[in-house]
Amino acid sequence: MTSADAGVRHLGARRLLAAPGFRRLLATRLAAQWGDGLFQAGLAGAVLFNPEREAEPGAIAAGFAVLLLPYSVLGPFAGALLDRWDRRRVLVTAALLRALFVLLTASAVGAGLAGVPLFVAALLVTGVSRFTGSGLSASLPHVVPRAHLVEANAVATTAGSVTAVLGAATAVLLREALGAGDGGSAWTTAVAATGSLLAALLAAGFARGALGPDPACGAVVARRTFFPARDQASACGNVTPACGAVVARRTPFPARDQASACKNVTAALVALLAHRMAFGMSLVVTLLLMRNSFTDQGPFRAGLAGLGQVAACGGAGVLLAGLVTDRLVGAFGRTRVVLGALGLAALTQLGLGLPMLLPTVIAAALPLTFAGQVVKLCADAAVQAEVGDEVRGRVFALYDTLFNVTQVVAVSVAAALVAPDGRSPGLVLAAALVLPIGALGHLLLTRPGGGSAR
After folding, report:
1. Which residues of 153-189 are buried (b: 16+ CB within 10 A; e: fewer)?
2. What is the pLDDT of residue 277?
3. Model-level pTM greater than 0.85?
């Protein structure tokens, strides 16, 4: 949102859903994310909470690295496909490939494979899922007015995240019914393919070219330039390579120069990556506490069921963020909202994470995930509003690459330092410290625009 958009009335979820394009794009996202949630929970159960397998901190870190880093290297180049080819066709093809790779991974689990063979199979699923997510994000401005991108992102990402939690819950139920060993885990994981097939069917319902890239943008990309060689791009300097993609004549900030728009995008990414670093460190601690330290306590559960409760609280945090982020940005500006969210996350790490008790760890998931979702909604809107359509797919792919690399670094550092039972207060303190550092970086980048940056 721009400052000029402050007076724009909120459409509300009902009016957004009344738009056929947004409704179909949202349904595509929900089908894909239900499958993602089911797949990730099924795989976690197969690897981390399977009585037939062992899981050490180093193995957890290696798993994240194998799953995320290869796509992180290829992502910016694969993202060019989103700006060169019809995004509808790309989404359909990617969803069908993902279904195939899910079944391949399920077969690997059922065969008892571990280590590199299993991770490579899962890597194919994760890579296509990330690519699909970038395509959905890049397509959103084609079905929603620019003035309502924050609001539309709130609805889409909130509904998608909650649906992913429901997918994870489905995996837990299937695991109970089918068994916790390799055979039951394989069948549980295989069910995730249905989400991909439904997503392909829904995406196929769009008209050709309806999701971009725009015809004029395609002509630019066809010249085989990674970023358009325009005079406006030179104003971005070296703030970040992605910012070279901002198109001044299309930006909703006509009164701002190109460098200011680049700083807004970079500032949002700095805040998001700081939260992801803290979240990754906390994730390793939580996994090991649930597996090796905690025992059931009243209504609170340890093990995979405990992670299910963490996911449920996280889903509630995502839902709350979706309900209030757009209004918070409208009232206080994007900069203040992002800083407040990072502050909340830091306090959560200290107040609820540091005691390392089962009830507080589960409770911490809600405010921590709420804060992360608020920051992500602001970052998504910044990229969508200030980056030209001809390179938006590549920028989102680069965005995803930075996101993945940050998580792998965080998980790897945590795995090297964490105690086997997960009780490592120093890591929780480190996670809390990363957040104000990210807030400071965000503030320094947005200072020329002041707190009114939207």
Report:
1. bbbbbbbbbbbbbbbbbbbbebbeebebbbebbbbbb
2. 95
3. no
